[in-house]
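Long-time lurker. I teach an intro course on protein structure, and each term I like to show students one example going from raw sequence to a predicted 3D structure in token notation. This year I'd like something fresh instead of my usual example. Would anyone be willing to generate the tokens for the chain below so I can use it in lecture? Attribution to the forum is fine with me.
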Amino acid sequence: MLYGGVGAQVTSRQTSSKKIDHEGRSRTRELERRLNRVELMNQALWELVRDAAKLNPDLLEARMKEIDMRDGIKDDSISIIPLRCPTCKRVSSSKNWKCLYCGLEFDRGAY
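-- Reply from a regular --
Happy to contribute to a lecture. Here you go:
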């Protein structure tokens, strides 16, 4: 019985693959739901601020471009930037919002 366990191994791998696929699809749906909620909140905030401050949509667009270009690359995203710690003067990534060397937490602004 040379090939006796092969069928069971294939079935087991197929089951594992289906489970991973299901988990991936479930995670994707959850992330899409969360992104939709963030988009809704962002739109609501913009409309509240715009109406309260009588802002022009062109100002929002200009500010978005300014923020996008802070890293020198127009890519419609906020990039991770190096931050110099005011305490130890060493450079850490804005991804952490904390100095990797002395532990000081950086000001995140709105985020």
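Some talking points for your students: Residues 15 and 110 are 44 Å apart (CA to CA). The first strand starts at residue 82 and ends at 84.
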